[in-house]
Structures are given as structure tokens and as C-alpha cells.
């Protein structure tokens, strides 16, 4: 099934569960959740399967509903096994996993952090589909051991369902597991992780187009007249594949730009003023020094606050001589200091963990180099 990844941040405990989910428990510290939508979908699938059981075994009466719902639960457990395979393999490589979210059509393992090698990527990705194929094989063997009856039908259907899940997830396109496998292979061949992501994302887009065209292809190749349900399923699956692959493609292109982003080139030159300096004087000093930022220092000459550009703009010009910089400054908080030699990955990590509009930039000696504004970072991304 599709994985949810957060390659920019380290593993951390999962926060409050999102609205519309049940918390089922934990396995190896991994929170298990299930979407509320599971129940209505499970009931619909059980109702449909009960019709199959009822046709072949009319004598069991209403018990066919119990048997069909038990099959749906068993299929859900097989999805959990698929996701646990991903999670446990990730943990084996020391990669954090915060949550497994279960659902019929969009189950996901929330893996925190990036794979360090193509082999880790391959192993974590391929083990899920393999688990589904193993479950499907065991269900098939079980169906052969039970010659007839409701158990035979349930095991046979479980085998087919897991076979479909396993094979489908091995298709070489993101966001399917097979897409991550393809990414690992291209990464190994080219030595570039982002190239692997781009190739696998385009594979996902091609799969999306094929899925959307599937009803028409079935009619042209096999002479099967497509139904409205066929078109709706193709639209839903194709949309899922296209959106997922497009998101990964955009992220890969973005991350290719990260090494070219440097604090040294983006930081604004700053001047240092004392707490009681009027805004008008600070603005004049910044203009004379051709500086784009103002840092407030204490009596010992140590920086402790940054003057907010938006706050200065909100003060009327005739009030600026009577308003001090301390009234329009923001104290430099923990994590709001960044090194002048930091680059893309380090910049994004700081922004994600310690959001702010501006950051104090220090040089290697610990002296004030300037100020890095989030707006300037966004502009650098748009301009590249």
C-alpha cells in the first residue's frame, strides 16, 4: 500500500490522531489507527460478499452476513500484516515509524526519515507486497485443504484479494510500493536518489493514464462493454495515482534545488542597535549602512531580539521618533539562530522545527552576520 513519508524530520512520537480515526493500540511503539470510513465500506463489502455466499449456500440463512463480515475483517488483518511488514523492516534499519493508518483503499505507514541507501529503500518497500503474496499463498493452501463450504469460498477470495494487493503494489510507479522499489533501483544505478524519485513518479503518472483508459481498452481489446462502475473506479484510482506521483515529482524537483540554497547568499545584512534606539534612528542607520535588517543588542552587546519589518511598517512615520525598537522587536527564541554556512537541507530542518518569520545568522566565530527572512527563502525557491 502507499506509504506516507516525512523525509525532512526525524522520527518523533505521533501527535494527536486526526479527526475521523480510531486508535486501536500500539505495536512496537507504533500507533495503529483506523479511519471511521472503514465501517461503512466494510458493511458494503460484506453485504456484497454475503450475496455470493447466499447463492451457493442458501441453507445457512442469515449466518451468511456473519461469515461475510468475518471475511472483511480477515482481509483488513491481511492489510495490517502488509503495513506491519513495512514498519518492522524500517525499524530494523533504525528508521522511525510513528503510525499505521488502516483503510481499504488508502492504508499507509507513516515512516519518519529518509532511507540512507538504495538497499534500505528496496527492502522496506518490497517487503509489504511480499507479505501480501505470502498471505495470499497461505490462504490458497488453506482453501485447498478445505474442499468445500463457506470456509473454502472465504479463503479463496482472501487469496485472490491478497494476490491483487501484492501484484498491484509491485507496479513501478509512485505512490505504490513498486514505485519506491523502482526508485531504489534507479538510485542504485545512477547514484542519485532524486533521479530515482523523478523516474518512479513519471512511472506513476503513466500508470494513472493507463488506469483512466482501462475501461475503453477493455472494450477495444476484449470486447467487454464498460459499466458506470468501471469508469468511477478507474477515475478514483487514476486520480489517486496521478496526485500521489505528482506530489512526489514536485518534492524531488524541490529537493534537487536545496544544495544550491545557502544562508550566506540569502541573509540580509544587519546593523546592531540598543534597546532604547528610536525606530526612526534605526531606519536611518540601516539605510546609511545599506542593511536590510536590524538586530537589537543588550547592554553587553549580545543580540537578543530582531526588529520586525512588518511591525515597523505598521508604525506611522510621525510616531517613529517616539517609538523604540524594543516595542517592535521579537525576542530571539530557541532554534531561531542559524549558521552562515548552512545550506538547503539544514535551512528547511530549522524552519520545520522552529517556525519563524526571521532568523538570526551567526558566523563561525559566533558574531552577527545578518538576518535570514523566510520570505527571502520562498523567493529563492520561486526564482530557481
Succession of helices and strands: EEEHHEEHHHHHHEHEEHEEHEEH
Coarse structural class:
alpha/beta
> Could you say which overall geometry the principal axes of the C-alpha atoms support?
elongated
Overall mean pLDDT: 88
* Strand line-up in the sheet with most strands: 9-8-7-6-12-11-10
Give the tally of β-strands: 12
Q: Helix fraction?
A: 40-55%
Bin the strand percentage. Answer: 15-25%
Distance between the termini: 34 Å
Topology:
Elements: E1 4-6, E2 21-27, E3 30-35, H1 38-56, H2 63-92, E4 96-102, E5 108-112, H3 118-145, H4 150-169, H5 177-190, H6 193-222, H7 228-257, H8 263-266, E6 268-274, H9 279-288, E7 293-297, E8 303-307, H10 309-313, E9 329-331, E10 337-339, H11 344-353, E11 358-362, E12 368-373, H12 374-382
Parallel strand pairs: 1-5, 3-4, 6-7, 10-11
Antiparallel strand pairs: 2-3, 4-5, 6-12, 7-8, 8-9, 11-12
Helix pairs in contact: 1-2, 2-3, 2-4, 3-4, 3-5, 5-6, 6-7
Q: What would you note in describing this structure?
A:
- There is one protein chain.
- The chain starts with a strand and ends with a helix.
- The protein has a 7-stranded mixed sheet with strand order 9-8-7-6-12-11-10. It has a 5-stranded mixed sheet with strand order 1-5-4-3-2.
- 33% of the residues are buried.
- With 384 residues, the chain is α/β, with parallel strands linked by helices.
- The protein has helices spanning 38-56, 63-92, 118-145, 150-169, 177-190, 193-222, 228-257, 263-266, 279-288, 309-313, 344-353, 374-382, and strands spanning 4-6, 21-27, 30-35, 96-102, 108-112, 268-274, 293-297, 303-307, 329-331, 337-339, 358-362, 368-373.
- It is 54% helix and 16% strand.
Amino acid at each position: 500500500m502507499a506509504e506516507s513519508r516525512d523525509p525532512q524530520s526525524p522520527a518523533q512520537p505521533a501527535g494527536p490522531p486526526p479527526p475521523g480515526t480510531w486508535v486501536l493500540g500500539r505495536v512496537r511503539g507504533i500507533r495503529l489507527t483506523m479511519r471511521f470510513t472503514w465501517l461503512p465500506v466494510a458493511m458494503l463489502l460484506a453485504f456484497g460478499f454475503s450475496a455470493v455466499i447466499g447463492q451457493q449456500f442458501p441453507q445457512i440463512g442469515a449466518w451468511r452476513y456473519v461469515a461475510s463480515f468475518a471475511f472483511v475483517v480477515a482481509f483488513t488483518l491481511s492489510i495490517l500484516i502488509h503495513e506491519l511488514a513495512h514498519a518492522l523492516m524500517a525499524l530494523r534499519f533504525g528508521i522511525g515509524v510513528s503510525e499505521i493508518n488502516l483503510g481499504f483503499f488508502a492504508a499507509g505507514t507513516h515512516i519518519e526519515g529518509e532511507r540512507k541507501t538504495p538497499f534500505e529503500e528496496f527492502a522496506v518497500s518490497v517487503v509489504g507486497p511480499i507479505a501480501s503474496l505470502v498471505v495470499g499463498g497461505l490462504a490458497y493452501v488453506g482453501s485447498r485443504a478445505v474442499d468445500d463450504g463457506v470456509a473454502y469460498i472465504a479463503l479463496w477470495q482472501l487469496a485472490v484479494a491478497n494476490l491483487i494487493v501484492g501484484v498491484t503494489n509491485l507496479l513501478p510507479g509512485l505512490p505504490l510500493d513498486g514505485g519506491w522499489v523502482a526508485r531504489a533501483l534507479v538510485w542504485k544505478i545512477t547514484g542519485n536518489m532524486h533521479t530515482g524519485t523523478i523516474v518512479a513518479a513519471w512511472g506513476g503518472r503513466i500508470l494513472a493514464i493507463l488506469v483512466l483508459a482501462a475501461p475503453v481498452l477493455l472494450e477495444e481489446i476484449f470486447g467487454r462493454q464498460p459499466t458506470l462502475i468501471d469508469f468511477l473506479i478507474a477515475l478514483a484510482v487514476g486520480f489517486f495515482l496521478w496526485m500521489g506521483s505528482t506530489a512526489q515529482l514536485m518534492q524531488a524537483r524541490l529537493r534537487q534545488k536545496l544544495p544550491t540554497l545557502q544562508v550566506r547568499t540569502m541573509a540580509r545584512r544587519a546593523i546592531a542597535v540598543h534597546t532604547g534606539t528610536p525606530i526612526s534612528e534605526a531606519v536611518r542607520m540601516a539605510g546609511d549602512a545599506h542593511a536590510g535588517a536590524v538586530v537589537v543588542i543588550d547592554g553587553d552587546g549580545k543580540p537578543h531580539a530582531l526588529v520586525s519589518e512588518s511591525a515597523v511598517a505598521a508604525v506611522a512615520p510621525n510616531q517613529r521618533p517616539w517609538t523604540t525598537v524594543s516595542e517592535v522587536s521579537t525576542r530571539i527564541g530557541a532554534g531561531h539562530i542559524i549558521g552562515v554556512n548552512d545550506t538547503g537541507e539544514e535551512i528547511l530542518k530549522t524552519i520545520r522545527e522552529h517556525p519563524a518569520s526571521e532568523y538570526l545568522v551567526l558566523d563561525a566565530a559566533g558574531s552577527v552576520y545578518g538576518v535570514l527572512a523566510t520570505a527571502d527563502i520562498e523567493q529563492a525557491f520561486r526564482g530557481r
